[in-house]
């Protein structure tokens, strides 16, 4: 009998130890799963907060821009899908390194990050706006399905070829209407070529472009505000001797205005 009691006591103690160990392991496992789940949630929250904080910083820079472009930048940032900015113009819109399109691209990448804008530069050398329309050169832009188009009409070439302001404006309208019809979500910005020292008729033609843009609710970027006055000798050093392109300093002046427009809201 005594041996039986000892045996029962041993079995009872062993059972208690086994059950206690099982309970402890179950508790540890449950706590571990809880900690893992909690940790994952906190990481996700941290990433969301970091993303929101990053966009809040970017939001400060784009306050100069039209609301539709702001919304496009926000969507691009959230979806990690670059906006396609197509810069289209005459020889004043150069593809060369250090030209104003290149300087603007550098500014956009520096401010918004390299994944926000994809920039394509297209330059029609030696063409008037009439050439652009008659030869349908503008169709190359339609093929690109841009989100934003920054357009510099060939007004300097039109001026030298005596196209006439009315014809220039009519050509511009044909081009813009084509882009809008083929891409209803595109945002179009229009700007003049660079100014020329002591020019007589050309500034009046550019002024008519500005008025035409305002009358037709076009977004007009008046970068001439950043240049010296037409009769200022300093203007000579901002264009090439042929006068059909801005010099390096001229490119910097031009890009300075556009940079302030695109990222100067801070």
Automatic annotation (TrEMBL):
<protein>
    <submittedName>
        <fullName>SGNH/GDSL hydrolase family protein</fullName>
    </submittedName>
</protein>
<dbReference type="GO" id="GO:0016787">
    <property type="term" value="F:hydrolase activity"/>
</dbReference>
<dbReference type="InterPro" id="IPR036514">
    <property type="entry name" value="SGNH_hydro_sf"/>
</dbReference>
<keyword id="KW-0378">Hydrolase</keyword>
């Amino acid at each position: 009998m005594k041996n039986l009691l000892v045996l029962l006591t041993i079995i009872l103690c062993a059972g208690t130890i086994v059950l206690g160990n099982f309970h402890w392991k179950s508790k540890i496992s449950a706590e571990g799963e809880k900690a893992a789940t909690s940790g994952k949630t906190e990481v996700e929250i941290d990433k969301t907060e970091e993303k929101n904080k990053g966009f809040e910083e970017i939001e400060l820079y784009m306050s100069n821009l039209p609301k539709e472009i702001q919304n496009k930048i926000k969507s691009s940032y959230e979806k990690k899908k670059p906006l396609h900015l197509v810069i289209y113009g005459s020889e004043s819109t150069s593809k060369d390194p250090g030209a104003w399109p290149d300087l603007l691209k550098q500014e956009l990448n520096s401010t918004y990050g390299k994944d926000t804008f994809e920039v394509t530069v297209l330059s029609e050398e030696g063409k008037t706006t009439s050439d652009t329309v008659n030869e349908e050169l503008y169709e190359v832009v339609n093929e690109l399905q841009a989100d934003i188009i920054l357009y510099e009409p060939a007004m300097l070439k039109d001026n030298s070829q005596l196209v006439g302001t009315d014809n220039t404006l009519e050509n511009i309208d044909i081009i813009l209407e084509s882009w809008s019809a083929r891409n209803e979500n595109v945002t179009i910005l229009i700007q003049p070529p660079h100014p020329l020292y002591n020019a007589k008729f050309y500034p009046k033609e550019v002024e008519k472009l500005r008025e035409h843009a305002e009358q037709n609710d076009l977004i007009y970027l008046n970068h001439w505000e950043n240049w010296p006055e037409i009769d200022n000798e300093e203007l000579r050093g901002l264009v090439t001797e042929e006068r059909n392109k801005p010099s390096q300093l001229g490119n910097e002046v031009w890009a300075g205005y556009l940079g302030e427009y695109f990222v100067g809201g801070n």
